[in-house]
Amino acid sequence: MVVRVDDIAAARRLRALSHVQEGRLYDLGHELHEGIPVFPGRYYRQTLVPNPGPRLGSNMVDWTTEVITATTQVGTHLDALCHLREGDVGHDGWNLLDDSSPAGATRLGIETAPQFVTTGWLVDAGTLGPGEVVGLDALEGIDPMPGDAVLFHTGWGANWIAPEVYLEGEPGPGLEVARWLVERGVALTGCDTWSYGPVPAEDPDRPFEVPQLLNVHHGVYVVENLDLRRLAADGVRTFALILTHPRLRGATGAWTSPIALV
Fold it and tell me: Mind listing the domains of the chain with CATH numbers?
């Protein structure tokens, strides 16, 4: 019998949903607004636009919209596999010159990323400071299968309301943990920090090497700026993770509002 990829994905989704026993929902995303912490060179602006024309009909219907000018790499967001590179080369040989246009990436844009319904695992590393490394010892009791997601609570997300502090640095999984995730076939990983991995890095001459290893070399998706406080406080370690995103053709990332169900 031939086992189809679709059958594997369906079985993975069913296994994830088997973790839902109580119907509790945890929203793992932050609100998106102009006051959030933003990495240098990125921005978010929102302008309210009232209806410029007349009200319609005898019921005088009216409306308001908005214009949003922003980079996708702000707030709780999923990185596409065209986001990071090592020199000129990204995942699967992606090259900025050959694989992009002024409108975006011509391959490996965020529209090619899956919509995730999978088993999620939470690593609660406690409360860590900038540059502190989550090591293999923190993974006790974590047993992901291929296609699962592993999220890391470091306590750094408590600084979200103080952008200057939040962006000073961050703790995060180290290279040993990243290699462990790759060996286990993890499809998605994320943290309650503005990037992924410790800042300052384990080797100061190799900044952001952890997400580079995952994203560029192994095609593991990374989600950033998660809010994992309630999940950690309630002692949840295994859950159904549902993470969907807009399919923005050619974009390097997309905002997301992931949820955990238990």
Answer: 5-32+72-261 (3.50.30.50)
